[in-house]
Amino acid sequence: MRPFLAPAGSVFRTYATGRGSPRSKLGPTLSLEHFVQRSRALALYRHILRATRRIADPSTRADTRRFARQEFERNRGVTDLDHIRYLLSTGKTEWESMERYIDGL
Prior knowledge:
Elements: H1 11-17, H2 32-51, H3 58-74, H4 81-104
Helix pairs in contact: 2-3, 2-4
């Protein structure tokens, strides 16, 4: 039986040295507070997407989803925690007023 020989420069070498490892593809590590705010942003985004199902007109529904995505994408790079909290609070307030309008239709 032949022993297993890995080719030179194989996956084993790059994994052991850290070059090309799965960890190098990830971004910087988030602080706990950033992680919490990120989960709140994702929860708000999912809530908005689910709530848009109640919009009867397909083009209005698509426009609303597109607008929500653009707003979240536009603010993706924000790292200041106070600004993130402000954006989440403002977004939640705006969406709640929009929901009242949708429910009134």
